[in-house]
Amino acid sequence: MTERQGITVLLVDDQPLLRMGFRLILEGEDDLQILGEASDGAEAVRLVRELSPDVVLMDVRMPVLDGIEATRAITATGSGARIIILTTFDVDEYAFAGLQAGASAFLLKDVAPEELISAVRVVASGDAVVAPRVTQRLLETYVRGADRPAPAAATKDPLLEDLTPRETEMLEAMAEGLSNGEIAHRYFLSEATVKTHVRRILTKLHLRDRVQAVVYAYETGLVVPSNPDY
Length: 230
Known about the structure:
47% of the residues lie in helices and 12% in strands. The chain has helices at residues 16-26, 41-51, 67-76, 93-101, 113-124, 132-143, 165-175, 180-187, 191-205, 210-219; strands at 7-12, 32-38, 55-59, 82-87, 105-108.
C-alpha cells in the first residue's frame, strides 16, 4: 500500500473532465494526495469508508445518490472526513442543504486553482473558515426564504445558555463571516485566544466545525439577517 503523504483527498463528480481538472490542480502540490475518485454519491460513501480521506470534494447533482444525501450519510457515520460541496451558483439552496447535512464549506466549480488548494488545506486543518461574505449571503438568503420560519419565531436552544457572554459574542462574530484575525482585532484578543473560544463553543453546542456553528446561529435565530431587501 502506498504510504500517505500530507492531506488526502477524494474527488466526487459525475463528470470525468472535472475530476481530471481537480486532480491536476491538487496533485501539483507536495502536501496533497488524491486517494481516489467517485462518479456518484453511493460510490463516494463506500470509498470514504474504505479509504478514510481527510477531505472530500463533493458534487451536488449526481446519479444514484446525490451529493447532499451522500454528505449526510458520511457525516452520520462519524467519519472524520471534511466535505467541501461543489456548486454552480454561489447562492444555491443545494449549497445550504450541504452545509446542513454536515459539509464544512462550499466552492463554486469555476473556483481559481489557488482558492481550491487553500480551501482543501483550511478544511483539512479542522478550522474551517466561513468562505467570507458569500456564505453569509447564502445563509441570509436561505433564512429569509418563504419556506423558513421567521428567526424571531425560532425556538431558543437550551444549549445557548451554556455559552459565556464572550462566547456568545464570538459566535455572533463568526456568523458575520469574520475570520479569527478579524474577531481578534474587534475584541482586542490574540488569535490563539479566539481559537480557544471557538473550540469551546463547538464543544458546548456539539457542533462539528466552525461552519456548522454559523448555520446553527442562523437556524436558532441567534443571528437575524440585517437587510431583508438584500
